[in-house]
Write a structure and sequence with these properties.
Chain A is of the alpha+beta class and 588 residues long. Chain A is 32% helix and 23% strand. In chain A, strands 8, 18, 19, 20, 21, 22, 23, 24 and 25 form a nine-stranded mixed β-sheet that branches. Chain A has a six-stranded antiparallel barrel with strand order 1-2-5-4-3-6. Chain A starts with 8 loop residues before the first strand and ends with a helix. In chain B, helix 6 crosses helix 7 and helix 9 packs antiparallel against helix 10. The chains are: A alpha+beta (588), B alpha/beta (440). The complex binds adenosine-5'-triphosphate (ATP) and magnesium ion. Adenosine-5'-triphosphate (ATP) sits between chains A (240, 242-248, 269, 397, 431-432, 512-514) and B (311, 338, 341).
Chain lengths: 588, 440
């Protein structure tokens, strides 16, 4: 498949920050990777624009000290990731270099470490037989990576049908050892190992079909699962001003969600937040497997102080790794914090290339770039009838917290769940600060999901959810009226309405991400909670005067919160529950 | 910096703007330094043989036949223990009359720490100010700015915090400091007898604005020397980062870059992040903590400078004048230390998180009661009590003149709870109520 060509070479002709122009002596392609030869080290860069003999490249490193006339070598390959067993529990930079294997305290330019461990020995079990007809992504064999059954597949780049000529026997192999020989229709033979490469900007489309997703993805976050659920293979985004809780929410989801594999792209955010994951994930147990969370997690870290060009690459690297694991029939959760930083990286380059700017100086094609990226997520049927999924949730950091800006607006068109964090809720410490009224999940309207919820939770679950939303809305309206007319200027009923909304807010929506019990609520407990709370909202309590309403509901809320902090159905939990019943009886 | 004999001298400038000049030259490295008629400049753009220099001192009076010499290296700082106790300008030249510092030459604005070589911050920094220690606890390795109006006493508060923090070194990066403020800092450091722990890089309002761009990198290169090589805990004070960002916009606008929001360069986020992300905790004990000042105009935190800062730093501290008590307080609603959960209730008393949250909630109730009062509505008995609580809480705990230990802050809060509220209204977990409730 590879044809010998004369490698194109070039010389640096200009430098502005990390945008370098190169005069070339041969053909180059868009997004081709090249290396700048600088003082004995090779600096990686990517072609982003070509104009006759002049090629614009974005350098994934600091360009300090580069000079006009320096040599550049082109590779004729696009930016690729290395796929194979051993990706899980690694910490990579945006270009999939292993951070743990780099030397020294400081990142060094051109210190490109290998993505996989080439020495490690894996226990291989063949799944295909000699004579089988196979195509790209078909499973040839399997190794166990941590706890995950990691499929060794026909490389994604293989087009057409092949026949298995030879398959390795069960046994121990390193990733670069031959595990199969395939022959194509012309009888040509191809060696297959456990590793392959794939260009990150090209989606892996080796699946049979991509139906609409329908299965709830449990996150343990009540305001998501109960009010605006996300599905396996769904997309969602979390816009919010700084400090409103995007990262805390994403980390909670990454710890708790029902996923086989979690890929986190820390894209242009704080290094200390990545360190928090490094510190916690090897300690926290995955409730589903009893193993450590880190074993199912891969982190792609391009923190805000790392080279900007690699920031854009980092989200594509993460997505490609997710697609790889999806092809194995796994449930993958992909998180990116923050996609705005990636958009800003695009903006910086586009400005340096003096392209015609779109709104807020972002590139004109930003909406297309974002929607292409989101479209790579999804639930798929593989060729062998199995299913896999990538659920993608990205955060957005809107400038000035104003949601009318290009990244938020473009993402809103691409993602199906919208979890808007409100400054006001964050200020009053109502965490998670997801605005219950502005946020939505389009999946709730999918008959497929509705059916699923009916069968798996209860027949009238959707009705209950809609009733809860309605109580929240009426509560908000009542609170506006009370603010205008004063406590005694409105009927008592307004106070009741207001407090019904507050009960749902304090007890269902608000959830302490730092409390061991409260942070994760399984679905059956969410069902119990919603039913209990709606039961209270449906009661017409009797009050003589408005100032009785506030203290009474505070007691109810307090008791319910104590329940949230207690182990489900524990003695403590039950005693708070009966206390609650006593309080309710007082005014029924 | 003197020029060497064999260096090529260029004398033909082809373009001059307010902050930059361009000439034809070859063999020049990107970000290399040059001297333009004795003024320090740095390469910011190379197109073919046309090199554009950013002249730190401004281009006023630069002629087209100015002598340009390239120095063959990016900006550097000579680092050694002799930096301690010294005052420098933005270029790292002494301004205290003392000798040049000898030491190893290090490029400023160097590479980032590999995230896997960091440690999660966990050392509390006690300042004695309850608005900080109780509500917005600081941790070594953190980066946090004061968001303040120009007329607020942020330099005083920052100096106070610096003197009380138990840092091995304090490094001041002053950008656009007024001469008075510069002398204020110098005075505080001298009076505290702390001079040998302090290093200052100062650009005052009397110096050209573009020079400021070097100050954070100079300060942080010195900080990295002490934190990495000497394993010391270093506190870096950067004031005023708004003036730093203004200087960035001067340069980028002169280079015809398309400005984004508020005429700031599109790279503002990355530019600021490169500075703030130098804050770090190392496993072997060395650390860099950054406390900065970002002045606001008209309290607008949606302006590109505070907005981008907020997205980078680990929280922010707001100062505000509380007219009820006539003192400046640390605003508990808008301030946030994101690293506080790493230490509160762990390094401090277990009731700390709950006491903090409860006091702030009650203070919010007081604010609401105040609005009610202003809108002419009747106050309930609870409203009246929250108002009284709010005033005392503000005076005894939020005001910046408070200087007590954290346990005393917590006890003070418990006293106020019991003084104005019932147990049910306070609603703190029963295990803490049993231990600390001061009422009957
Ligand atoms: N669910 C929660 N429970 C308790 N505290 C929370 C919760 N969510 C957020 N917080 C508080 O808010 C702070 C900021 O949250 P977070 O870091 O997630 O904000 P962010 O939206 O990611 O901000 P930025 O855009 O600047 O990264 C946290 O440090 C924590 O103190
Ligand atoms: Mg965040």
């Amino acid at each position: 498949m590879e044809r010998e060509v004369k490698q194109t070479k070039g010389k640096i002709a200009g430098i502005i920050a990390n945008l370098v122009t190169v005069e070339v002596d041969g053909p180059v392609s868009q997004n081709e990777i090249c290396y700048i030869k600088h003082a004995g080290i090779d600096l990686m860069a990517e072609v982003i624009k070509v104009f006759e003999k002049k090629v614009f490249i974005q350098v994934f490193e600091s360009t300090r000290g580069l000079k006009v006339g320096q040599d550049v070598e082109f590779t004729s390959a696009m930016l690729e990731v290395t796929l194979g067993p051993g990706i899980l529990s690694r910490n990579y930079d945006g270009l999939q270099h292993d951070l743990d294997r780099m030397e020294g305290v400081f990142l060094k330019r051109g210190d490109y470490t290998a993505a996989l461990d080439y020495e490690k020995i894996w226990d291989f079990i063949p799944l295909a037989k000699v004579g089988d007809t196979v195509a790209a992504a078909d499973w040839l064999g399997e190794v166990t990576e941590n706890v995950i059954p990691h499929k060794i597949m026909v490389p994604f780049k293989f087009a057409g049908k092949y026949s298995v000529k030879k398959i390795a026997a069960a046994g121990e192999y390193t990733v670069n050892e031959e595990i199969a020989i395939l022959t194509d229709s012309k009888g040509l033979e191809y060696k297959v190992t456990m590793t392959q490469k794939w260009p990150v900007k090209i989606p892996i489309k080796t699946f049979a079909q991509k139906p609409r997703p329908f299965r709830l993805l449990e996150t343990g976050v009540r305001t998501i699962d109960t009010l605006n659920p996300i599905v396996e293979g769904g997309t969602g985004f979390v816009p919010g001003p700084f400090g409103s809780g995007k990262t805390v929410l994403q980390q909670a989801i990454s710890k708790q969600a029902e996923a086989d594999v979690v890929i986190m792209a820390a894209c242009g955010e704080r290094a200390n937040e990545v360190v928090e994951i490094f510190a916690e994930f090897p300690e926290i147990e995955d409730p589903r497997t009893g193993r450590k969370l880190m074993e199912r997690t891969t982190i792609i870290a391009n923190t805000s102080n790392m080279p900007v060009a690699a920031r854009e690459a980092s989200v594509y690297t993460a997505m490609t790794l997710a697609e790889y694991y999806r092809s194995m029939g796994l449930k993958v959760l992909l998180l990116a914090d923050s996609t705005s930083r990636w958009a800003q990286a695009l903006r910086e380059m586009s400005n340096r290339m003096e392209e015609l700017p779109g709104p807020d100086a972002f590139p004109m094609d930003l909406p297309a770039i974002i929607s292409n990226f989101y479209s790579r997520a999804g639930f798929v049927h593989l060729n062998n009838g199995k299913t896999g999924s990538i659920t993608f949730i990205g955060t957005v950091s809107p400038a000035g917290g104003n949601l009318k800006e290009p990244v938020t607006e473009s993402t809103k068109k691409a993602a199906r769940c919208f979890y808007a964090l409100s400054q006001q809720r964050a200020d009053s410490k109502r965490y998670p600060a997801i605005d219950p009224i502005d946020s939505y999940s389009k999946y709730l309207e999918y008959p497929e999901l509705q059916e699923y919820l009916k069968t798996n939770i209860s027949e009238d679950w959707i009705d209950q959810v809609l009733r809860a939303k309605n109580f929240l809305l009426r509560g908000k309206e009542a609170s506006e009226q009370i603010n205008i007319l004063g406590d005694d200027g409105v009927p008592i009923d307004y106070h009741l309405r207001f407090w019904r909304g507050e009960v749902i807010d304090f007890v269902v929506l608000q959830q302490d991400a730092f409390d061991d019990v409260d942070k994760r609520t399984p679905l059956d407990r969410q069902k119990f909670l919603l039913e209990t709370v709606l039961g209270i909202c449906n009661i017409d309590f009797s009050f003589e005067s408005f100032d009785e309403v506030n203290p009474y509901f505070k007691r109810i809320i307090n008791t319910l919160k104590q329940m949230n902090y207690s182990e489900y159905e524990s003695e403590k939990f039950n005693s708070f529950y009966s206390e609650l019943q006593t309080i309710i009886k007082e005014r029924k | 910096m003197e020029t060497k004999a064999f260096q090529k001298i260029y004398t033909k400038i082809i373009q001059i703007t307010k902050a930059t000049c361009s000439l034809r030259a070859s063999g020049v490295g990107y970000e290399e330094l040059a001297m333009v008629n004795g003024r320090l400049a740095q390469v910011v753009k190379i197109i073919g043989d046309v090199v554009t220099l950013q002249v730190f001192g401004g281009t006023e009076g630069i002629p087209t036949n100015a002598e340009v010499v390239f120095l063959g290296k990016p900006p550097v700082l000579k680092v050694s223990d002799d930096l301690a106790g010294r005052f420098f300008d933005a270029f790292g030249n002494p301004i205290d009359g003392g000798p040049e510092v000898e030491g190893e030459e290090r490029e400023i604005g160097g590479p980032s720490v590999n995230p896997v070589r960091r440690k999660q911050p966990s050392e509390l920094i006690a300042t004695g100010i309850a608005g900080i220690d109780m509500n917005n606890t600081l941790v070594t390795g953190q980066k946090i700015p004061f968001f303040a109006e120009p007329d607020q006493p942020f330099n005083q508060v920052m100096a106070m915090v610096a003197m009380r923090a138990k840092a091995d070194k304090i490094i001041l990066g002053g950008m656009g400091l007024t001469n008075d403020d510069y002398l204020f800092y110098k005075n505080v450091f001298e009076n505290a007898g702390a001079l040998e722990r302090i290093i200052s890089f100062v650009n005052t309002t009397e110096n050209p604005p573009v020079e400021r761009l070097l100050v954070p990198d100079m300060a942080l290169t010195a900080a990295e020397y002490f934190a990495v090589d000497k394993k010391q805990s270093v506190l870096v004070l950067l004031t005023d980062m708004t003036l730093y960002a203004d200087a960035l916009s001067i340069v980028s606008n002169r280079m015809d870059q398309i400005p984004s929001k508020d005429s700031m360069p599109g790279s503002l986020y990355s530019d600021l992040a490169k500075i703030y992300e130098k804050a770090v905790q190392f496993p072997d004990g060395g650390s860099i903590t950054i406390i900065a000042v970002t002045t606001l105009s008209g309290g607008d935190i949606t302006h590109a400078i505070p907005d981008n800062t907020g997205y980078i730093t680990e929280g922010q501290l707001f100062l505000r004048k509380d007219s009820d008590i006539g003192k400046v307080i640390v605003d508990p609603f808008r301030s946030l230390s994101r690293l506080k959960q790493l230490v509160i209730g762990k390094k401090t008393r277990k009731d700390h998180p709950q006491v903090m949250n409860t006091a702030i909630r009650l203070f919010a109730d007081a604010a609401q009661a105040k609005t009610k009062l202003e809108n002419g509505f009747d106050l309930t008995d609870y409203d009246e009590r929250t108002l009284k609580f709010g005033k005392e809480y503000s005076d005894k705990l939020l005001a910046i003149d408070v200087n007590i230990e954290i346990d005393e802050m917590l006890d003070t809060a418990w006293n106020l709870f019991a003084k104005y509220f019932s147990k049910a209204e306070v609603a703190i977990r029963s295990e803490f109520m049993d231990l600390y409730w001061k009422g009957e």
